[in-house]
C-alpha cells in the first residue's frame, strides 16, 4: 500500500469519527444561539448585548408576546445575561419560556414558568422555574424587556438537530404544546 492510499484511508476514518462526534456536540446549547434559532431574531453575541443590539432593528417593549425574546441583564451570578423565548403568555404577570443553559448546563427546557415580580408590573424583574428545586427559583433576575421578532418563531432558520427533531420542529412543537401545557413547571428536553 502506498503512502497516498494510506493517508486517504486515515483521513476517511478520521472524518467518520468527526461525524459521529458532531451530534453529541450539537446537544450542548448556550442560551443566545438557541434563542436566535427558535425565535428567528437574528442577533449575535452575549445575551447581555441583545437589548442594545435590538435598538433600531427590532421592536422592544415590556409586554410579553409569543415568540418574543426576554432579555435578562447581566448580574454577578449571570455575567453575560440570559435570553429566553416566550412560548406562551399565561397572564399579564406569567409566561412560559423556552430556553437553554438555565437549570442544567447546555440543556434545553421548554415551557418553564416565569413570573413578573417587578414592583411596577413591567417585567423588569422576574423569577424563573429552576429544575433542581422543582419550582420557581429563589432569585429575582433583572431584565431589560422583550425583543419582538418580525416573523413567527423559527420561521426561516436552518434546522439544527438536537435529537431526531430539528430546532424548527422543536420550536413549533414547543409552542403548540405550550398552548396545552400546565403552567406549573417545565419540560426538560434532556437526552
Polypeptide structure, described:
The protein has four helices and nine strands. With 191 residues, it is an alpha+beta fold. The radius of gyration is 19 Å and the shape is globular. The model is unreliable at 10-25, 154-175, 177-184 and 186-191 (pLDDT under 50).
Give the secondary structure arrangement, pairings included.
Blueprint: H1 3-26, H2 31-39, H3 50-54, E1 59-61, E2 69-72, E3 82-91, E4 94-100, E5 108-116, E6 125-130, E7 135-136, E8 141-148, H4 167-178, E9 187-188
Antiparallel strand pairs: 1-8, 2-3, 2-8, 3-4, 4-5, 5-6, 5-9, 6-7, 6-8
Beta content = 25-35%
What ranges have pLDDT less than 50 throughout 5 or more consecutive residues?
Answer: 10-25, 154-175, 177-184, 186-191
The helix fraction, in percent, is 25-40%
Tell me about the largest β-sheet.
Answer: 6 strands, antiparallel, barrel
* Total beta strands: 9
Give the helices and strands as they follow along the chain: HHHEEEEEEEEHE
Rg on CA atoms, Å: 19 Å
Overall pLDDT: 78
Shape: globular
Strand adjacency order, main sheet = 2-3-4-5-6-8
Amino acid at each position: 500500500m502506498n503512502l497516498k492510499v494510506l493517508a486517504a484511508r486515515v483521513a476517511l476514518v478520521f472524518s467518520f469519527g468527526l461525524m459521529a462526534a458532531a451530534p453529541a456536540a450539537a446537544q450542548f446549547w448556550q442560551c443566545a444561539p438557541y434563542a436566535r434559532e427558535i425565535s428567528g431574531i437574528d442577533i449575535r453575541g452575549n445575551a447581555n448585548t441583545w437589548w442594545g443590539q435590538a435598538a433600531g432593528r427590532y421592536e422592544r417593549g415590556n409586554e410579553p408576546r409569543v415568540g418574543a425574546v426576554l432579555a435578562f441583564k447581566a448580574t454577578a451570578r449571570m455575567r453575560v445575561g440570559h435570553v429566553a423565548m416566550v412560548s406562551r403568555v399565561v397572564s399579564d404577570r406569567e409566561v412560559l419560556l423556552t430556553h437553554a443553559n438555565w437549570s442544567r448546563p447546555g440543556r434545553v427546557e421548554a415551557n418553564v414558568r416565569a413570573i413578573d415580580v417587578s414592583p411596577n408590573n413591567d417585567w423588569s424583574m422576574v423569577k424563573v422555574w429552576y429544575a433542581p428545586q422543582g419550582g420557581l427559583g429563589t432569585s429575582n433576575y433583572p431584565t431589560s424587556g422583550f425583543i419582538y421578532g418580525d416573523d413567527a418563531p423559527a420561521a426561516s432558520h436552518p434546522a439544527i438537530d438536537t435529537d431526531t427533531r430539528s430546532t424548527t420542529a422543536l420550536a413549533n412543537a414547543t409552542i403548540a404544546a405550550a398552548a396545552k401545557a400546565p403552567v406549573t413547571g417545565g419540560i426538560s428536553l434532556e437526552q
